Amino acid sequence: MVTLTLRLPNGKRKYFRGETREEVEQKRDEFQKLIDKGFRLGDTCKVSDLANTWLADERVRVRDTTYIYLESLVRNTILPYLGTKKVTEVKPTMIKAMVRDLSQKYSRSSQRGIITTLRSIFDLAIEDELLPHNPVTKSITAIGPVAEEKEPLSDAQMVTLLEAAKGRCIYPFVLLGLNTGLRRGELLGLMWSDIDFKNGVLTVSRTVARSVDRRVGVLVDDLKTHSAYRSIPLSPAVLEELREMQRNSNSVFVVSLRKGGMMTLARADAEWGKLQKKLDFHVNPHLMRHTRITKWIEQGLSPKEVQYLAGHSSPNTTLSIYTHYRFEDCFEGMKNKIQALG
Asked: Is the dihedral of CA 298, 301, 305, 308 positive or negative?
């Protein structure tokens, strides 16, 4: 083992170790070059300080709802692991250990969001010359089992879900979720004025997004993407049910509390929990959306039509669902053709 030292500008010594003298000299010389360039390698800035600075920058750059998501992600996943570390102390191995731990309770998709955010935070350290390289290297990726593919609800399950919701304030949420594929916040933000009963069309122009307290939610008309603003045709049967609901409603909201107030995110979660207890199969609000998108595909709508109705900003999201279910529909036919050829 070879050891060499380098005297730092603050008078302290830094030690470099390796198997060969050539390897250690290279480490020492690279470090000296960074000092010569003015990098503040002895800086005492902690990850929590860097993260708070990054959040302050994001606060004025992104939508309120996006900021709430980012702040929650930083506070709940990154800072508990790295917050007290000096920025210069953080190594890829530390981050990989953090991801391994988080993989026990977070999906691959959520992990990717955490990794991307952390990489962006350390980009700020590079800009401020606190670090020469980003410790969130390309080798740091989401781990754990791939999420099981969601199976859409069967026709029988859809009927059971509707029957279980009848008589409850959550019923309009379920009815429209199964028939329009709206996102949870879009369903909660829907007003009677958004439904054109004459032409049989529902317009999506607002949503209930998470607020600072994260559970109540706030009504916003600044949707995340332009494609989220859309109009969805309604069937005569659904329109008739909605007309009857409106006659008995004392609220401007389609999905509301019994006294007419907006149903909050927390209340929607509570009502859904009660509903789930009446069912012998698992379902969540997003599965209603997934089921409706699948139904549109089965009914022969084109990928572009499905993308518009679902409010997908990227055609790739639509195509991944479309291609899978089209393949399943066609597989039996393909098998018969191939087997017929001998």
From this structure: negative
